Amino acid sequence: MLPAIDPARSLLVVIDLQARLVPVIAEVDGVLANARHLVEGAEKLGVPVLLTEQNPAGLGGTVPELAGREAMAKMAFDVTRTPGFLDRVPAQADVILAGCEAHICVLQTALGLLAAGRRVRVVQDAVGSRRTENRDAALRRLAAQGADIVTTEMVLFEWLGSAEHPQFREIVRAVK
Predict the structure, then answer these.
(1) In terms of pTM, does the model score above 0.85?
(2) How much is the pLDDT for 44?
(3) Domain-located, residue 121
């Protein structure tokens, strides 16, 4: 049984939400909106955020609504194979994953993190694939492998922990 998501132990990793890739993602508006809520909530709550970009020379940079933040370029689908990535993920981290494609880079990264002994939370309403059946199959496989499947609001409200949190109203206003 996994504990509640602790903002002090969390790392948000947003995978490959890039200009040339997102137009072909099914239900992309919801994926982007939820990824943006997660990034903005993480920044307000002091949770580190890391973006990845798959082959940025070919797929372009991160979408404008998330650009301007640190991004790690990669060629491997599993970012844990990129030199230096795992060094940035504390051993006890709750790694929150969002992005695309769910059945390729998100899946392989989650499997790599699980193999490295990290706790993985995949945000189902903030991940996407070109075809919804690929996303759904990836989420089922990840759950069976030990990843925790969560939603954007689950993450944000677990980070807050209480309606008395100083950022509560601002975060609630953003997601409602």
Answers:
(1) yes
(2) 94
(3) yes
